[in-house]
Amino acid sequence: MRPKTADPATQLTPRQMQSLKLIRSFQVSRGYSPTMAELASELGTSRSTAFEHIAELRKKGLLSACLGKARSLKLTSKAQRLLNHIADQSSNPYRDQPAGIPLVGRVAAGVPIEAIEDKDYLSLSSYFQSSDDTFALEVKGDSMIDDGIRDGDYVICRRSKVADNGQLVVAIVDEKEATLKRFYKEKTHVRLQPANDDYGPIYSDNCRIDAVVVGLIRKL
Hints:
Layout: H1 14-30, H2 36-43, H3 47-59, E1 63-64, E2 74-75, H4 77-91, E3 101-103, E4 120-122, H5 124-127, E5 134-138, E6 154-159, E7 168-173, E8 177-185, E9 190-193, E10 202-204, E11 207-217
Antiparallel strand pairs: 1-2, 3-4, 5-6, 6-11, 7-8, 7-11, 8-9, 9-10
Helix pairs in contact: 1-3, 2-3
């Protein structure tokens, strides 16, 4: 079995990595490499220290240069691959992390049950069958508090133009106001019913369904 090689990025000191990035930045933005004096200035160090960093990078096959020639530093293909890899990781820092929260079993809210740990991951996208039609909204207000929906909660919604009577929906009233209510289709109009006695129902003949609510998230 071939031994696993170390990640090249971990074999560089922070200053060596900074030097490599500075050289590429010079080449991309100005079309030429920095001099040793310019590199030292950018690093905030002495020319001799900057030279040591360059020497180490050359030993590791990341830089090439023509001795005695100014601005001759050049990134090798190995260096280009390394910097591209780092850029990819930075643009997606969660790529190698599990897409969800660890789900380790069940807990009783009634009669106690046997504690059995069964490691898995709970992902919102898989739990709610995420697609372009699924989205979340933060709840502002307490008109649905008797349905257990509080100010600051997040409702998971699925886009839909229709809803069954009694279904929790996001409705658009008069083409401008969005509201979270229970939907009821009556003879001549729509009734949007709150779940708080401090609020009255909304009656409208100009109402459209934007989404139905399929879940709720609360941060305790």
